[in-house]
Amino acid sequence: MKAVVFSGTTEGRRFSKKLAALGAEVTVCVATPLGAEEQGEMAGITVHAGRLGPDAMVALLTGADLCVDATHPYAVDVTRNIRAAAAQAGVEYRRLLRARSPLPEDCVVFGTAAQAAEYLAGTKENILLATGAKELAAFAPLDPARLYPRVLPTPEGIAACEAAGIPHRNIIAMQGPFSCQLNKALIEQFHIRYLVTKDGGAAGGFAEKVQAAAETGVQLVVLRRPEEVGETEAGLFTHCQEILKWSH
Questions:
Q1: In what order do the strands lie in the sheet with 126-130?
Q2: Domain 2-97+228-247 - what CATH class?
C-alpha cells in the first residue's frame, strides 16, 4: 500500500511510523524544515519538506492508495486543499482528528483571532499569545508593548512577530510542548494577565496552559476549534490494516 500522510503534527508523525511498521510505503509531507527534523528518518518513509500548491499535491497523490490528512486542527485551508487534491487524484481521503479538550468554565471563547483581539482591545494588561505565528497579524492593532507572542524559533516565526510590530524583547521563541511550570514562569516573568491559546489538545500542551492560568489567576482566552468530521487514530489504523490485508 502506498500512503501519503500530510503531517507536521505529533499524531501525524506517530501514525506515519505505525503505517511504515506495517509494511506500507509512506510519503510524509511537512511544510517546513523543522517539520522534517521532527519527523526524523525511518525505513519505509520518504519525507517531503515544503509547502505544496494544488497541482503539486495532485501530482504527489497520483498513484497512491490512501491520503491521510493529519495536519493541525486549525489548518482549515490546508485541509480543504488536501481534500480537493485527493478527489482530483482519485485517492481515498481520510481525516485524522486530534481529540478535543474540555474547556474550563471561566475561560472566554472566540471563533476567530480578530474577535479575541477586539475583546482584548478593552483591556490594558499584558498578553501572552500562545496561538502560533499565523494568528499574530490579528493582534497587531493592540499596543505591541503589551504583547508577548510565543512562536517557534524559526525565521518565519520571528518575521511574523516583526511584521506585527512586536518589540524584540517581547518575543518568546521556543519549541513546545511546555510544562505548567514553564508556562507559569513566563506568566510571572512578563506580568501576564491574559493567556490566548488554541485548543491544541494534549499534543499542544493545552491542559498545561489551563492549569497555569488557573494557578496564576490569569484570564484564559481560547480560539474555538473549527468543527470537522474525521476519525480517531485507532479507527483509522484498523482501516489501514484492512487495506493491507486485502492487498496481499
A1: 108-110, 219-223, 192-198, 126-130, 147-151, 172-173
A2: alpha beta
- Alpha helices, H only, the chain: 10-22, 33-39, 54-61, 76-89, 113-120, 155-163, 180-189, 206-216, 233-247
Give me the phi and psi of 45, to 5 degrees please: -120, 125
The predicted-structure confidence for 21-77, as pLDDT tens digits, reads as follows 999 999 999 998 888 988 988 888 999 999 999 999 999 999 999 999 999 999 999
Q: Is CATH 3.40.50.20 correct for 108-223?
A: yes
Biggest alpha carbon–alpha carbon distance for the chain:
64
Please state, in angstroms and rounded to a whole number, the distance separating the CA atoms of residues 111 and 152. Answer: 23
Give residue limits of the domains in the chain: 2-97+228-247, 108-223
| Burial state string for 143-174 with b = 16 or more CB within 10 A and e = fewer than 16 | eeebbbbbbbeeeebbebbeebebeeebbbee
Taking CA 64 as the corner, what is the angle to CA 62 and CA 69, rounded to the nearest 5 degrees? 100
Counting as low any pLDDT under 70, the low residues of the chain are: 247-248
Per-residue pLDDT, 42: 87
